[in-house]
Fold this protein.
Amino acid sequence: MTKFYRYLCIITITTFCLFLMVPAHAGDTASVKKDAATLEENTSTPKEDTTTPQEEATTLKEDTATLTVEDGTICKEVVDHNPVEPGTSFTASVEKLYCFTKIVGAIDPTDITHVWFYGNTERARVTLAVDSPLWRTYSSKIIQPHEIGAWNVVVLDQSENVLASFSFTIVEE
């Protein structure tokens, strides 16, 4: 995909430069021929990509670095891709909670992971697809009545980098 974008950029720049060199008067073709020859001399032909696997991995890491959580919350429900009754404290009778996230910046389809923690214990790990530059998604977790205390949901990218974290508490009724 990287090669394609490089070629596309070269073609776009070349086309733009040629457009700028079109003479104001239709009869003035000598300067266009001279400018076109100069452009041809100064425009390098695309070379075969010699990117090493390590460089490619670095490029991929840079590409996913643009992935961010623009909005996120813990809530009681998600309706029409929107969080309902968000909060940071819920009663033990809540039964189920959702972690809603609005992800921006995905260059290509990718995945994120919601990791649910009760205290310091991982209780669930949910991998979710992100298929466009602006994507809303969520995961859910059944909360047992005895699981009173501090909870946390950590949002990770494919490389296990932390994108966001959402804390909440389950309290007795």
